[in-house]
Amino acid sequence: MIGFKPEYRIWLIAYITANVIATIIMYNTNTLIGDVVTTRLFSVTDLWLASGIVVLSYFVFLKPIYQFFSKIKVSQFIDLTTNERAAKIAGYILLVLQITYLIFNLVEGVNVAGSTQKTQSPLLFFWIFTPVDMIFLVYYGQFRNTSMFKYNLIAYLISNILRGWAAVYLFVLFFEWCQMVRKGKINYGLITLLGVLMFFLYPYLLYIKLVLRTVGSNSGVTDGFFTIFMQVIESRGYLEFLEEGITHLIGRLQYTSIVVEILHYRDQIILLNEQGAILPFWQDGLPQLAYRKALGIQAPFNLGVVLTDFFFPQQEFVGRWNINPGLAAWFIITPLWSLPYLLYILLLCFLSIWFMKQFPLNNGSLDAVWLAWLVFLLPGWINAFIGFIYSILLMMIIVKFARYLAKIRVFQSTVVEVE
Fold first, then answer.
1. Hey, how many other C-beta atoms are within 10 angstroms of the C-beta on 245?
2. CA 330 to CA 327: how far, in whole Å?
3. pTM to 2 decimals?
């Protein structure tokens, strides 16, 4: 990977390796893993094809395509430079949003991983169109070295841990890894030690995550869970439990198994799409949702939600959760639309970098963009990726508003007193 940024290299290798290992596991066990765990593997040919598609998409998008777009020179159409005062005010605004969002979730019992709880609160629409967690990812890359960052990081971690979202550990690790690599402060001995420790502790961490999810969705069913947990360890043996934990981790990092299922049920999914039962890829996203809501237009579920009903027809309600179909899914389902789909994805890729480059760039500015490509775009979460681009725009508005407030005398004196 000559010419590829060293801070990103290990992450690309890790995700490709996870999909390769997943392929080997599924081939040896003749059973799929991940979201479709325990499902029988019907075709080895589909498995090899899916694995090749996934690995190739990771390599092509996260290396040459990303490098090409990241080198494009961008003219800034808005002044987003910030002094220390404006950066502090922007940090205060985001902190208030994060705390308010956490309170809303705790009171309403929503936005908890694995929960199907719904709310009729009118504030729901505000939070739908103010994706605080996504805004923080933009803030992380741009304002990592500002005074309010540590407070926002603490709020972000508390909020997500209480709601059972384990991906926050991965995100923070990614950003901090990039920082350390650029500064030449990587202690490989310590990293190895921590890696081995996390490897052997993962079953426990996984269980703790599941408990937190249960507490968030139904606090009355957690009695005796830890006792049962220890009984399971003793009855089945730690090594067996460790094997299941690592298989679960691989299953979460890969999406080859989903592409295998899409290939297997391709004809049926194509028929559903032709019947208008799947939301077209260009209609998936927050702006499109706002447009439909404003005009009262009814629309089917997106592909990720439809696949849950297709793969799990026994579920009681459709629309309570979704799975990542993979970036290649629409190439498989609508091959005649492959070129428009590719151009659409490339446009989104360009916009993610173009909008981020409206900020004054520092060493970590584009880290959030590469991470979004890795965890949102490649797994096929088009809605989430568009939400990330939308969050860049919201962060631009926050910064512009902070710049305005920084010029007002009352805010100048308030910030100085706090300092």
1. 20
2. 7
3. 0.88
Q: What is the pLDDT of residues 304-363, one digit of tens each?
A: 988 887 777 665 555 567 888 999 999 999 999 999 999 999 999 999 999 999 998 777
Residue 414 pLDDT > 60, yes or no? no
Q: If you write DSSP's letter for every residue of 297-312 in order, what string do you get?
A: ------HHHHHHHHH-
Q: For the chain, what is the largest distance between any 2 Cα atoms, rounded to a whole number of angstroms?
A: 69
Average pLDDT over residues 119-127: 83
**Distance between CA atoms of 27 and 147, rounded to whole angstroms?**
50
Contact 387, 334 (CB under 8 A): no
Enter the DSSP assignment of 285. S
CA–CA dist 239, 202 (Å, integer) = 12
Encoded amino acid at 27, one letter: Y
Q: What are phi and psi of 418, to 5 degrees?
A: -65, -40
Give residue-wise pLDDT tens across range 351-372. 999 999 999 877 788 999 999 9
Helix (H, G, I), strand (E, B) or coil at 40: strand
Distance in angstroms (rounded) separating the CA atoms of residues 142 and 81: 11
CA 328/CA 377 separation, integer angstroms: 10
| Cross-strand bridge partners of residue 40 | 31
Distances (CA, A) of 226 to 113, 206, 209, 222, 230: 20, 13, 12, 9, 6
Query: What is d(CA 145, CA 351) in angstroms, rounded to the nearest whole number?
Result: 25
Rg of the chain over Cα atoms, rounded to whole angstroms, equals 22
Answer whether 389's CB lies under 8 Å from 351's CB. Answer: yes
Q: Do 371 and 112 form a contact (C-beta atoms < 8 A)?
A: no
